[in-house]
Specification:
mainly alpha; 8 helices; homotetramer
Chain lengths: 211, 211, 211, 211
């Protein structure tokens, strides 16, 4: 491992922080399946599996949402030249939120299966996303403020575009989560739109003088 | 980590996608053991363990099938020069399917132990494999179409051979899974044949002018 | 992977030991969420979630404490030029303690929820931290003793400062854990102080002639 | 990642196989804690924890045994210049055995707690170790046979010494496991001797002309 990325006074390179974050993303995403309960064996197995559909939807939704965060996390670290202690802590808090995802995912799946407490579960799920989004924006604001931790070749307009982009995520989640009070399906549809938007629009490379 | 593999407009290198995929493969393969339930303590322990044989068979089968996918996944990424957003998403969907494997594995083990719902469980297991195989083929088709993401030194006949090879997996699974309606043992035997074929025949290196 | 870090008679480089440790830290930190039980469904979900607050506190506390150990572990390995067999074993024992954290974390959360056995749980939690801190100090003493495993450019005053720093952790834990006999909240407040101290004060780079 | 280690006709480098194996070792070692059950809350917590002592012993024993395998696995891969398909499969089977360890570990812990079925549990535990040891020796024999996969600078006497060393592990396990029929404590003491021997004696570097 090259040491080149080490900056400031902490003995941790940006490569190491990125690898560690990758590991947490990969583990969190793979642990989700442990929360899909085996179907209760009353009646035919096929019926029991079908009644579990919200578990599969919640699994896929959380898997892909964490996947989107992973892709955008990489894009951010692609622009980072060095890390400081505050970045390490903001990133740890972000990972704390990502690693927490299995909990609201099961809340949501159970509520959809039982038809009870759907609003509470959707609000918990949405709140976890909003907190994660705010921490992601905080990571980016810290990195880009006065450009101290940024690579020299990142264009100012890219910095501004990314700040707006990462602010959009938690804002959108904060807006669509209350829709659960009307109909929980509206909130879920909103997450699909969020996934599609962040999935289809990549972070533009945008180095000055780049292609 | 070298940046050389970064291509297009996404800030994620092919090395990073490969490492992340490796981590998900490694976690999924190791989590399988958590689903081997401790034997119920009625009667001698030895009898209880022996009655659990389908759990051990299902564990080994899923472990080795994921292992085969891992080996072939590496072979594909060995040929990849750059990643784009569509590849990241197709790969994430493939990982979603791989990380899901523990669920149908337990279904199959429980059905074989209880002797109930064996067909349903085998169909679920087979369907997970078919979906995974189709996504793997989709990854390869996307990578090799018009060779945009391929290394320059990959021979056209190798591209065609790999396309046929990766198509063979889901096709074979789709054909042998319905045999479970006759006898679930036939389907399991089919998976062993699949394992052996993909295990024994490696992806040929096949660079033009290679050794 | 460069081989440069391999030293002495063991075929393991310091990079490999660091990567392996990183993986264990990342897995241990992410597994913590599995121990937050889904709330029992008697009465409204919201009340059940609120009654679980100690689980969330314990999750966040253990997550951040392991995060602090991870940051300081990196700082130590940043100074290491080669590994010997004793270092590998001391490090494995440290990882054994880190990977054990989910157990006392649940003890603590359950005791706080039920209001029973809080002292016992806090002592177990504290003992795990003390043992971990002692092993961390042992790793550092072994590395820095007669500087055999250290990089040549590490200043002697930095070595002494780190030895004092890493001794402070387990000492502080050993002192505040008995406060649980008075009031368990005092011990928890103590851990927050510990977190803040080790989080805010980074390991100084301190190479001779460095910036 | 350098491509230099890629050999033969498989698109997988020895670095990748080593990283993947490392990940499986790290996950298996960290998952062990999930099988330490929370103590039943009847009577004081402290008594319940003390009655669980076999769980802690089994956790530490399996953790350190997997740690020993990890260290020796690195020593083997340190000598490997290229991988072929047979090595990938032998290594996957070895990982299958390592990832299986949590199962016999719980069997052993439960048997020691309940005082029932201790012999059965010790035999299962020992059998998993013997199978793992045989697979490890098979990996080494395959690597060293006619030196096809070895680095050029490995001395023949080192190859012979390692073959004897790795054969010693499963042989010793096979000999001490039947002692459980007399007294299960003898078998456990034997594992401690094994741990100490393989822990204290490192693989000698032994390159021709090396220091």
């Amino acid at each position: 491992m090259a040491d080149g990325g080490t900056g400031g006074s902490v003995g941790v390179s940006s490569d190491r922080v990125e690898s560690f974050s990758d590991a947490v993303f990969a583990i969190a995403i793979t642990l989700l399946v442990l929360d899909i309960r085996q179907p209760a064996r009353s009646g035919p197995l096929w019926d029991a599996i079908l009644r579990q559909w919200p578990s599969f939807v919640a699994y896929a939704l959380s898997f892909l949402l964490i996947g989107v965060v992973w892709v955008n996390h990489h894009a951010v670290f692609h622009f980072i030249a060095r890390v400081d202690l505050a970045l390490i802590w903001l990133n740890l808090l972000l990972l704390l939120d990502v690693a927490f995802m299995p909990y609201p995912t099961v809340l949501l799946a159970d509520a959809l299966v039982s038809g009870r407490d759907e609003v509470t579960a959707a609000v918990c799920y949405g709140a976890t996303l909003v907190v994660g989004g705010v921490l992601f924006e905080a990571v980016w604001l810290h990195v880009s403020r006065r450009r101290r931790l940024l690579r020299a070749d990142v264009a100012p307009e890219v910095v501004r575009a990314m700040g707006r982009r990462f602010l959009g995520g938690p804002l959108f989640c904060a807006l669509i989560t209350p829709l659960a009070f009307v109909q929980v399906g509206l909130t879920l549809a909103g997450y699909l739109i969020l996934l599609t938007y962040f999935g289809v629009t990549a972070v533009r490379e945008g180095r000055t003088g780049g292609s």
